[in-house]
Design a protein that fits this description.
Elements lengths: L1 H6 L18 H4 L4 H13 L35 H15 L8 E5 L3 E6 L2 E6 L5 E5 L9 E4 L5 E3 L6 E5 L4 E5 L25 E7 L7 E5 L5 H4 L8 E2 L2 E2 L5 E6 L7 E7 L2 E2 L5 E3 L6 E5 L2 E5 L7 E7 L14 E2 L3 E7 L2 E5 L3 E5 L3 E4 L5 E2 L11 E5 L2 E5 L4 E2 L5 E2 L1 E7 L8 E5 L5 H4 L8 E2 L2 E2 L4 E6 L7 E7 L2 E2 L5 E3 L8 E5 L2 E5 L10 E8 L6 E4 L3 E3 L3 E3 L2 E9 L4 E6 L5 E8 L6 E5 L25 E5 L2 E5 L4 E2 L5 E2 L15 E3 L4 E3 L2
Parallel strand pairs: 9-17, 19-24, 30-38, 40-47
Antiparallel strand pairs: 1-2, 2-3, 3-8, 4-7, 5-6, 5-8, 9-13, 10-11, 10-14, 12-13, 14-15, 14-16, 17-18, 19-21, 20-21, 22-23, 24-25, 26-27, 28-29, 30-34, 31-32, 31-35, 33-34, 35-36, 35-37, 38-39, 40-44, 41-42, 41-45, 43-44, 45-46, 48-49, 50-51, 52-53
Length: about 675
């Protein structure tokens, strides 16, 4: 409560926890239900915000009130329980995929199951001990993608109509894409079960100075290295040193698959080890190291002083002051390691003087601090010893990703996510995109991401305009027709906001609004107010067939907390969260205090609106009162008066009788 009051509804500001020293442990309250507990810690570690993990939770401690919830850990013997291993796996997933960089996107919610995604990971959380088959329509995976569950290793493919069928069970499930091209990526990050987001494959450069002669090589193991490298390494056939540096060190260039993992190695010649201990480095933070025989210290600089490694692209040459034996080959081209700072003769580029530890020189002769990527259409470079491979972004193909097959349109609506569509025309589109598209039957968006909605449009001719209108019926996102030219690299992927006719070629950093929320109130309280995000209070100024209506702009909030109060701010219904991407209209009923996403779920008889003993019947969209005799009205609020017996004084003059007035004609 305090976190919400201080930080508002931002989940990344909240420190969630399951167990603490002030409350009975979760297992104590749940009757030692380990299955439900695994669901709880999955939510804790993967959902959002820095998780607070109380000691002993991984050992299934189940103490009650203080002091029993502070039991000593050594009594359990530090066992590697199944929950310990499960917790370790969750932490590995969070770290490897750097989930803190990705938003929590709700995809499905029911009383039994909640599904959300963060980056490349899909998380299924059960709330009931039952099997459930869920056809998930909105998700960030491509057609044909194979999704595999972390624990069971069971996999399934996304169908041709983009349905991901989840067989939810009593245990939490965590799915990842089992190939490198599954994700509908909108940036240069690479998703795969092995390579974490935002990291490409780099090299580990190892310099080694032996004191004795021998056929020195490197024995490798660990998840940091690609399998094709490890498959060719054994104790009798170590990884070779292929060149020298100017300091007299042997040099090896080792491909790295996951720079977040430990890269283990032993430098040896036969059974003679350089160090008696096994050594590892984290390539992500230490990509280049120096080793000396009989010295178990991993140096980040040579003993002679600071060094600079200069990488040159293919086609360039180093000057005559660099011996050929000191030039090492790599995917970018070649490199040398020399003392820094130093004037290096580069025949094609005059002289270079730099104090940086690593620098890349391209054909334009300007020093850069990361290698040039030749891949087109925002493809990702994968560096190899013998060259550079291109991992193409979704929608392009070819050796350098030069063949463009898809344009990506992102759209941020203010409401009604599921109802928006695209009207398409023009020679740029593949004929399959235009088939069956009419104004009344627009092309639907494919999925939802952290910006809004996403459509992946198949392109046949990238050199002509692709025309489109985003609309719901006659409501257009922009009053004008819009278009993109796929052959323009900047227009391969565009972002559009409802009400803003600008076509953004980069994801907007500042968005004036995200969505609005319509709240219906059904009840009789005259001074009821709608409170949003624990601060702003709004009246219900409008009337609709169901009761009172308030429409609120939520700004750029991805989550809103909504509650009912009286005019003085006293709480009538406790706050509950609303996710604008999945809920843009809800109904609140006096005395219910439940959020109804659909009017079909409302019991309109809850408040017993039928007066004077009337019988209430609720139906979709309203209710009807069956009144007792002598009562009428929508809520049986009107009494039917007894009939009045006419008094006749003159039979020749008529009397007009009504329920309210007796008139004798004169």
């Amino acid at each position: 409560w305090y976190q919400r009051r201080v930080h508002g509804p931002q989940p990344t500001h909240i420190h969630p926890f399951v167990d603490s020293h002030d409350t009975p442990r979760f297992l104590n309250l749940s009757g030692n239900d380990e299955t439900t507990y695994r669901t709880a810690i999955t939510w804790l570690i993967l959902s959002g915000g820095p998780p607070v993990f109380y000691y002993g939770s991984e050992q299934l401690l189940s103490g009650g009130q203080d002091p029993y919830n502070r039991e000593p850990l050594w009594n359990v013997g530090y066992n590697l329980t199944s929950t310990y291993n499960f917790t370790s796996m969750l932490n590995y997933i969070r770290k490897t995929y750097q989930l803190w960089n990705y938003p929590h996107i709700p995809l499905y919610s029911s009383q039994a199951t909640y599904i959300f995604s963060r980056g490349p990971i899909l998380i299924v959380l059960p709330n009931k001990q039952q099997q459930q088959k869920i056809d998930l329509e909105y998700h960030p995976f491509r057609v044909g993608s194979q999704l595999c569950e972390m624990v069971s290793a069971k996999c399934f493919n996304v169908t041709s109509n983009r349905i991901a069928t989840i067989n939810a069970s009593s245990d939490p499930q965590i799915y990842y894409p089992n190939d490198n091209y599954s994700m509908m990526t909108t940036d240069n990050r690479l998703y795969s079960p092995i390579i974490p987001p935002s990291l490409s494959i780099w090299n580990l450069i190892v310099h080694y100075r032996p004191n004795t002669a021998g056929l020195w090589g490197i024995h490798l193991w660990g998840a940091a290295y690609p399998s094709n490298v490890l498959d060719n390494v054994s104790w009798s056939q170590p990884y070779p040193f292929t060149c020298n540096d100017t300091f007299g060190f042997l040099t090896a260039v080792i491909p790295i698959q996951n720079s977040m993992e430990k890269a283990y190695f032993i430098v040896h010649a036969g059974d003679t080890k350089s160090c008696s201990q096994d050594i590892y480095v984290m390539p992500g933070s230490t990509p280049e190291i120096w080793l000396i025989q009989d010295d178990c210290i991993t140096h980040t600089q040579p003993p002679q002083g600071p060094a600079v490694t200069i990488h040159q692209s293919k086609g360039l040459q180093f000057g005559s002051n660099i011996p050929s034996s000191a030039i090492c080959k790599e995917g970018f081209g070649s490199f040398v390691t020399v003392k820094a700072p130093s004037n290096i003769s580069l025949p094609n580029c005059s002289y270079l003087n730099t104090t940086e530890s690593s620098v890349w020189i391209d054909t334009d002769c300007s020093p850069k601090y990361q290698p040039r990527c030749p891949c087109k259409n925002l493809g990702i470079c994968i560096e190899r010893i013998n060259g550079i491979d291109c991992r193409c972004k979704f929608g392009s193909s070819g050796d350098l990703c030069g063949n463009l097959t898809t344009a990506i349109v992102h759209f941020l609506p203010r409401s009604r996510y599921s109802k928006w569509g695209l009207h398409l025309w023009g020679d740029a589109y593949d004929p399959s995109e235009l088939a069956n598209i009419t104004w009344a039957n627009p092309r639907k968006f494919d999925n939802i991401d952290d910006f809004g909605m996403v459509a992946n449009l198949k392109i046949k001719n990238a050199n002509v305009d692709a025309n489109f209108i985003i609309h719901i019926g006659d409501l257009k996102a922009c009053a004008n027709d819009q278009k993109l030219r796929p052959s323009n690299v900047s227009e391969i992927e565009i972002w559009i906001i409802e009400g803003d006719c600008t076509i953004y070629t980069m994801k907007p950093k500042s968005i004036p609004y995200l969505s609005r929320l319509g709240v219906h109130y059904i009840g009789f309280k005259p001074d009821v107010m709608l409170q949003v995000n624990f601060g702003s209070m709004f009246p219900f100024p409008n009337m609709d067939p169901y009761g009172k209506l308030a429409v609120v702009d939520l700004g750029s909030k991805k989550l809103a907390w909504v509650s009912l109060t009286d005019a003085l701010g006293n709480e009538i219904c406790a706050p509950f969260p609303v996710v604008p991407t999945t809920t843009d209209e809800l109904w609140l009923v006096e005395g219910d205090c439940m959020m109804h996403n659909e009017i079909t779920s409302i019991d309109f008889c809850l408040l017993q609106p039928c007066l004077n003993g009337g019988l209430c019947t609720s139906f979709i969209g309203g209710r009807i009162c069956q009144c007792k005799p002598k009562f009428t009205g929508f809520s049986c609020e009107m009494a039917i008066p007894d009939p009045v017996v006419p008094i006749v004084n003159d039979v020749t003059k008529p009397i007009i009788q009504t329920n309210l007035i007796r008139v004798q004609m004169c």
